Amino acid sequence: MSRLIKTIGLAAMVALVATQYSAASQLIYRPINPSLGGDPINGNWLLAYGQGQRKGGSDSPGFSIDFPDFGDLGQDWCHRS
Fold first, then answer.
1. Structural domain count, the chain
2. 48 lies in which domain range?
3. Quick check: 73 and 66 in contact, CB under 8 A?
4. pTM score, two decimals?
C-alpha cells in the first residue's frame, strides 16, 4: 500500500513539474499568398503548384454521373393501389 502511495505521489510531482515548464504562445497569421500580403517570391511557386494539381484541361468535367433512364415508366406507377 505504501508503494502505491509513493508511486502516486511521485507521478503527481512529475506532473506538476512538467506543467511548469510547458508554455503556450499566440498563433501568428503569416500569409503565404502574395495577393493577401504574403511574400511575392511565393507567387510563382503557388502558381506552379496549382497548375500541377489540375487534372486535364478546362473542358474536362472532373466527374460524371450516369443516371438510369426512367422515361418509360410513365405516370401510372405512382397511382397504383
1. 1
2. 29-53
3. no
4. 0.32
